[in-house]
Amino acid sequence: MEKQMVIRLIISLSILVMVTEAAIDKTPKAVEKWFKNLPYAKQKTTKFHFYFHEIFAGDNETAPVIAQANITAQSPTFFGMVRMFDNPLTIGPEPNSKQVGRAQGIHGATSLTEIALFFDFNFVFTTGPYNGSSLSVVGRVAESQEYRELQIIGGSEIFRLAQGVATAKTYFSSNTTVIVEYNVIVRHY
Ligand SMILES: *[C@@H]1O[C@H](CO)[C@@H](O)[C@H](O)[C@H]1NC(C)=O
Ligand SMILES: *[C@@H]1O[C@H](CO)[C@@H](O)[C@H](O)[C@H]1NC(C)=O
Ligand SMILES: *[C@@H]1O[C@H](CO)[C@@H](O)[C@H](O)[C@H]1NC(C)=O
Ligand SMILES: *[C@@H]1O[C@H](CO)[C@@H](O)[C@H](O)[C@H]1NC(C)=O
Question: Which GO terms describe its cellular component (predicted)?
């Protein structure tokens, strides 16, 4: 009996935490207060593991080409090609696995001599306690590397002033799709 009560209390407490976290005050006054309190705020570490699905050709493209240079067509490394993407992030590698967010931004082929992309995008969370919060990511993804390391340079709401590391590893690729496994670790307040 008592055990059940404790469990119920824990469940209602965690619901309370989720609700308060979902309603972060974004008014300038509240942001300033949050900022001033920073020296006393405790740092937290959060980890994520998810899969990123990009369809770059054929039907249902999620990453169309938005710009390229005249020399791109002759370049063996696609130098100058820029794509805008809005790619689903899912818990498992299957395309119909539960979606937890989107990766939204651009990447561009940035090397004249190897296949390497410059990335600039946000992980935008759409479920659970992180719903509405985002992490900003930049970095270089070279085809020659097994693990590509990207930098988490900031974030919004729960992830204000976040810093961290994301590693990306190709899980699957075809002539239309690439599925990338991401491991993310961030420090935030
Ligand atoms: C991808 O390859 C398949 C054959 O494996 C082909 O039928 C299809 O047209 C190709 N798609 C693109 C967009 O190149
Ligand atoms: C594209 O999306 C439509 C609608 O969701 C779906 O029926 C179709 O199978 C998709 N095409 C591919 C190649 O996944
Ligand atoms: C790029 O190619 C187009 C079409 O061939 C041409 O009109 C334009 O002058 C070229 N631009 C440059 C910067 O070479
Ligand atoms: C996430 O937040 C949006 C906007 O506040 C809301 O419409 C949506 O229902 C939320 N989704 C989940 C799964 O909580």
Answer: apoplast
**What's the 85 CA to ligand 3 centre distance in angstroms?**
26
Q: Cα dist. 5→15, 17, 34, 141 in Å?
A: 15, 18, 35, 50
Instruction: Specify the fold of 26-188.
Output: AOC barrel-like (2.40.480)
Mutate to test the pocket of ligand 4, among 19, 98, 99, 131 (most ligand atoms within 8 A of CB): 131
Domain ranges in the chain? Answer: 26-188
**Cβ(157)–Cβ(134) under 8 Å?**
yes
pLDDT tens by residue, the chain, 189 residues: 455 544 454 444 444 444 445 578 999 999 999 999 999 999 999 999 999 999 999 999 999 999 999 999 999 999 999 999 999 999 999 999 999 999 999 999 999 999 999 999 999 999 999 999 999 999 999 999 999 999 999 999 999 999 999 999 999 999 999 999 999 999 999
- Distance between CA atoms of residues 103 and 124, nearest Å: 6
Q: Which phi-psi region, left, alpha or beta, contains residue 135 (left: φ > 0; alpha: ψ -120 to 50)?
A: beta
Q: Which of 17, 18, 21, 9 is nearest to 188 (CA)?
A: 21
- Say what the pTM is: 0.85
